[in-house]
Amino acid sequence: MLEQTLGGESMTLKKASLLLLSGFALGLCIAVRGWSDPMPTRPSKMMDYAQPQGLYRFRYPSSWKVSENEKALLIKSPGDPGLIGVFGIVRIADTTSIHDAVLNEFKQRPADLTQSDATVAGLHATKLVGPKKGDPSTKMVEYYIELPNGKKYYVLLMAPLNRWGQFSADFYSMMRTLSFE
User: Fold this and answer.
1) Statement: the pTM of the whole predicted model exceeds 0.70
2) From CA 42, how far away is CA 168, in angstroms rounded?
């Protein structure tokens, strides 16, 4: 075998060290990211949605089914029950504060939830993450938002925990395009 030396150290040793270091870095990335957490898929073809009274608008996957009434919107991905993604927006009653709505969630399932600050549509929001009550296999991400005009909204993202990665790109697209009046 022909070896080149550089300053007394063989190139073979340098290559082996570089490979070992690269393997360590890759292992560290996998440990931090989580091997079982798949990368988000590309979002679906999107369609525009505008709430009939003009309260909010966003883009959603064209294959998802929209259900709405005066106070709430629910959009579900195609698929069998228990395997679908859900996006929802509900207007919170004027008499309920964001603080009270969040406290109520913690009273119902205190050990399961994490709370953090977030930004939705350029507005401050309270974000809760945890399993669906009574169903630890379903992940819920909830946002509580108060607009400058005093109107308050609850935004829900929900999907099976083991399929969250399949819906994350669509959820991201819907949240990124969400705007309020």
Assistant:
1) yes
2) 9
C-alpha 82/C-alpha 12 separation (Å) is 54
Query: CB neighbours (10 Å) of residue 20?
Result: 10
- Give pLDDT tens digits along the chain (181 positions): 333 444 444 444 344 344 334 444 444 343 333 333 344 555 568 999 999 999 999 999 999 999 998 889 999 999 998 899 999 999 999 999 999 999 999 988 768 899 999 999 999 999 999 999 889 999 999 999 999 999 999 999 999 999 999 999 999 999 999 999 8
Query: DSSP 3-state assignment of 64?
Result: coil
Distance (Å, whole) CA 45 – CA 41: 12
Alpha-carbon distance of 53 to 126, in angstroms, equals: 25
3 state SS of 102: helix
Evaluate whether 85 touches 159 at the Cβ level (below 8 Å): yes
DSSP annotation of 109? S
| Token digits of residue 93 | 């009653």
DSSP strands (E only) in the chain: 5-6, 9-10, 46-50, 56-61, 65-68, 72-76, 86-92, 114-120, 123-132, 135-146, 152-160, 179-180
Which token pair is 15? 């290559």
